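PROTEIN ENTRY
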Amino acid sequence: MRQTARTLLVEHGPEAVTLRAIARELGITAPALYRYYGSRDDLLEHLRADVVSDLGEALAGEIAGHEAGGPRRLFAICRGFRRWALAHTNEFTLVFASGATAATSSTAKLQQLTEPFGRLFLLAAGDVLLADEAALPSDDVVPAELRDDLAGYRDALLAVLAEAGVDVPPQRLTVGTTYLMMQFWARLYGHVTLEVFGNYPIPLAKPDTLFDALLADLAREIGLPTTAT
């Protein structure tokens, strides 16, 4: 049943995934599906989980062979995320760019170490940003209006990292570092989203070059050589 839903998603997009359409493909009545899913939203949540699991497996393959905790591992995840998004536009749309609830938003996916994508990205980013060679920003660079929100998010990150067995000294995961992590994700996610939906302001003959430049900029901002990308 979910395979039928996944086929509709891949071929026609999230809006095509309805209980009626699935029932039609399976040759049954739509009410019969309610024995398995309470609503279309319930079905979509399960479908999102399937997609995120597949993304996690794809990214695990991307980082195979890279040094654990090294910056190349983080940037391999970034490149793998972009490649996956471009190859799976409708699945990317469902998980990262369509009416997700608070529990399934892209930010929630990053917070949840139980989610394969969130676990890989967050742990890799944390390893790099918390390493001694990383240039951590002062809390003073954070706008005062954002500090309470970022402090709360920092505490949440410390909790999920601790659950994963990663002991992070609180003095390393500062509000400034948390601010940097959020900016890192925002720029990566924003760039990929623009590319997936063809919303660059100008046509680009070599979009790979622009993405590589973004990663180089991010590396420099955290004190890493561009060769780390």
